[in-house]
Amino acid sequence: MGMGRFSNIEVFCEYASPIGGLLLLGDGKVLRGLYMQDGPRPVEVQPAWKRSNEALVGVRAQLDEYFAGARTEFSVPLRQEGTTFELGVWQALREIPYGETRSYGEIAAAIGQPGEARAVGTANGRNPVSVIVPCHRVIGADGSLTGFGGGLERKRALLELESGVFQLA
Q1: Axis crossing angle, helix 84-94 with helix 117-125, rounded to the nearest 10
Q2: CA gap 25, 33 in Å, rounded
Q3: Are 10 and 54 spatial neighbours (Cβ–Cβ below 8 Å)?
Q4: Is 135 noted as a catalytic residue in this protein?
Q5: What dihedral angle (degrees, nearest 10) is formed by the CA atoms of 11, 12, 13, 16?
Q6: Which of 23, 55, 76, 135 is catalytic?
Q7: What is the phi/psi pair of residue 130, to 5°?
Q8: What value does the CA radius of gyration of the chain take, rounded to a whole number of Å?
Q9: DSSP readout, 119-154?
Q10: Which residue in 8, 18, 72, 142 is a FRET match for 155, CA 20 to 30 A apart?
């Protein structure tokens, strides 16, 4: 992976979650990335990044609450870099209520781009802040669990957590 999308990363920490290891990336002030490291596309820690558990302690505390079933919304400062279309999709993801899902087509319509379900899927896959920007809440029009960078088992686990089926932590 090129450094392009990671050029503003200064600090990182690792978070052991019930769905596997997460890598949290930031610039010292805001969260810029949250990646599932046990999935098919782990992010390689770069030599220029400084390990700093203190910088992202608030993010980890909110993740603890989320995985315990005690938090339904995140209020961490974050910054995502992407195209105008991607930023629109990612904002729409944040507007999907906890415990609910939307189809790719519904997201396309919500951002004023009906008929762009496939492009929404691509943008969803490029979301740099998984879990907090809930790309796992987007499903196929037929209700099927489709395309999740962290793997469908993790997607199912997050949706089951949010629907109250079981607690992960």
Answers
A1: 80
A2: 5
A3: no
A4: yes
A5: 160
A6: 135
A7: -65, 165
A8: 15
A9: HHHHHHHT-SBTTTS-GGGEE-TTS-----TT-HHH
A10: 8
